[in-house]
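Anyone? Bumping this.
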Amino acid sequence: MKGRKRLKSNLGWSTTDRIVVQGHDLVELIGNTSLGDFAFLELKGRLPTPEESAVFNAIAVTLVEHGLTPSAIAARLTYFGAPESLQGAVAAGILGMGSRFGGSIEEAARTLQESLASAAPDADPRDRAREIVARYQATKQPIAGLGHPIHRPADPRTARLFAIAADNGLSGRHIELMQLISVEASAAYGRDLPVNATGAIGAILGELDFPWQVGRGLAVIARAIGLVAHIQEELAEPLAGEIWSRVDEEASEHNRSG
Amino acid sequence: MKGRKRLKSNLGWSTTDRIVVQGHDLVELIGNTSLGDFAFLELKGRLPTPEESAVFNAIAVTLVEHGLTPSAIAARLTYFGAPESLQGAVAAGILGMGSRFGGSIEEAARTLQESLASAAPDADPRDRAREIVARYQATKQPIAGLGHPIHRPADPRTARLFAIAADNGLSGRHIELMQLISVEASAAYGRDLPVNATGAIGAILGELDFPWQVGRGLAVIARAIGLVAHIQEELAEPLAGEIWSRVDEEASEHNRSG
Amino acid sequence: MKGRKRLKSNLGWSTTDRIVVQGHDLVELIGNTSLGDFAFLELKGRLPTPEESAVFNAIAVTLVEHGLTPSAIAARLTYFGAPESLQGAVAAGILGMGSRFGGSIEEAARTLQESLASAAPDADPRDRAREIVARYQATKQPIAGLGHPIHRPADPRTARLFAIAADNGLSGRHIELMQLISVEASAAYGRDLPVNATGAIGAILGELDFPWQVGRGLAVIARAIGLVAHIQEELAEPLAGEIWSRVDEEASEHNRSG
Amino acid sequence: MKGRKRLKSNLGWSTTDRIVVQGHDLVELIGNTSLGDFAFLELKGRLPTPEESAVFNAIAVTLVEHGLTPSAIAARLTYFGAPESLQGAVAAGILGMGSRFGGSIEEAARTLQESLASAAPDADPRDRAREIVARYQATKQPIAGLGHPIHRPADPRTARLFAIAADNGLSGRHIELMQLISVEASAAYGRDLPVNATGAIGAILGELDFPWQVGRGLAVIARAIGLVAHIQEELAEPLAGEIWSRVDEEASEHNRSG
């Protein structure tokens, strides 16, 4: 097998009497590590400190459940057609966690990380914020992590998440920059553009020293929990047939008149 | 809208200033609830007691990571073809959590729950166990939750999981019956058939009073975490191309000679 | 590599100057074989006769498009969240082609094939039909392939499909038995239960000597075409946002009053 | 319902006695339209001419089958874990038809269409070709639609596809430009860079006046057929267990020595 690359994953492997995950004996982790901390271990390669654990679990739970979102509706409709496959319904829901949803966390995290990585140590963060806002204005794109279609005056999760980060000594340059972007954007656009939950989570990923690509993955992890709960609810009290008939009713009106 | 069913999910809903999940204000949960406990809330409708939390997190983390399993390989190969879609790669991996993998937990939990639900209060659990073993023998199917292709003499996770259940006052009739099934099956088949991790988790789901259908969902939730970690590893150090060439090499040998 | 099984697929392989599919040179097939006939080749291992081609293409096109079905809605909602991944939206739609939709073709085909396989050569097919209807009555399940929620008095596709089979000399014992099941079921239930399109397709699969498992696969193949068309329409004139708001509106009413 | 958008798809709708697809009565299409022509109708809104039909079916069948590709392996491994869900295995395979595979057709088609759309009517296509090659050289990206890792001296499908287009009067500016790009790229890089099958298909999509986005969709449609055939083969003669053990064997070597 000379010249071939080893097929080796550092995540996990097992022998007859041991299972090892990220260098830890799984049997020792069981009972000592919560699901959220285990996720941190998987993604980071080490267990979190208590402060990191508090902050990481906080951002993860924020993303679990949002009611009848497009991804939850897609999962329920899929289960309606294929009740033999819970995993297929959850997968259908996860497939909607792309650039529009999970992607906004990713984009906020990336904007902050790339800006800070290229910044001179003594650069004024206000200049960074202005530069970022100007770049978005030039492309006429909405700024990732700001504003919310429903929540007024501000997304109630943001203040909570930033407070937890501060309480745990994890409020640093990424959160500062995110907040300054909000200030500068509100001035530039002449209306209030507060940091929303995806912006807060994107900033906190930077404080936890996660690469921005983890943003979409974290959304997928959290939403998988919510989607299993939606299918469990669908099992007991199905909504899919009724959802279909709402859409089809219109289509049928068209059909009859068309 | 007379005569129409309401499209109402109890899982979550929101107004301009509030987000509510299973009757709790989300902002109050953030920072006070770990990801594992939040999953319990989503699936059960209430937060866990400290004992339930310990046991639920223990079974969940057991299912996160198993190295280069078929579902992890499928996720990596999918990412290779579609690197723009992390969610697609994770979904592909989740699609493999069906009757063979997640299904074995489900089947173990179902066997125990249906047997205990139909048992007379004073029935001898040994009779139940014998009856279950006889039923499997008649159909020549392997008994769900027993034995393991790799681990010898026994799956190291089982003893750990049962100890955690006992320590938290959650070792009851389901675990007892699962262990008796192992005893009776070992006698019937004339070889050691210890309870494996899926059997232990199936039994513990009963102790936590979860319906057996949650078994597959729990596997999906846990594995979503592992799959995101595999894609993150693939991003840094890809294995997919090498995996493909191992399979294709053989196919190519065939091709040249065929 | 002694003792190892060869990784060999008969479907396709290639060398530097040739690509071979099911034993045919791909370059010779291109331009001489239609997509439907190529699908027949893939599934059957040989090209169809002109008669088989006519009948196979007829059943395939019947399954392509049905308007805003649950799977089309799920695909559109998925695309809304992940517009970077057309393949993810189509996959989400395909995941709904399970036991309820693709499965009914499969079940009709299986019922017919298993009944005919076990029948004595001189058995009266009416007895077979009565036996099948009695078995469904005993389990209180609807008979696969009969009746339709919308089409009155009968599914207009059925007569057309059976006529095409007859015109091509492919109307045999499976179609005869399907029609007798309809007669016996209508008598047994005291109302008209005509053969619907899935029953007709299930019967025709038997005439084409396809195993019943192909039923679900054929539905997946046909529907993939329809789903790509739905995403293309969504690209030009999106409905997903409106679909979401119809569902959410109700949820929001609940929210405000709840 | 004032102010609400109608939920109206032009693709298909039905009444009690009619099913309409793209303005045609489905019952009239059945028996008169092949699967490939039906796909053209779905994607284009009208039936093809005989020449368009010949060319469209030719490019579609080219994409159906490529042996044990990553997407076929992913589908087989998924089926191994979830044999109850053929649709899940096919969906897993489709999820790999992203930017690397289906995307190369899309990119070739887009490059040609955007270049020709912005060209002056009397522009020399050689200048266009040089400009495109220069742009790729500047970004150090491989040119979409040129070269092939296996086929030498050239992809055998290309000449065949271009001949069929010419025979049917559909060899125009897109094919001409694709061929000129090959000439200019071969000169610029000092090695033979012939048009491959994805480049040929990308060019032909332009001749058929399809938008470039259809490229990925066509790959998905064609590959769905191939994936169903792979699962059917897996059903009869499974390779998944063996594929897994090849990957795992290596992992296990690591495990034992690790």
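Late reply, but here is one note on the structure posted above: Confidence is low (pLDDT under 50) at residues 253-258 of chain B.
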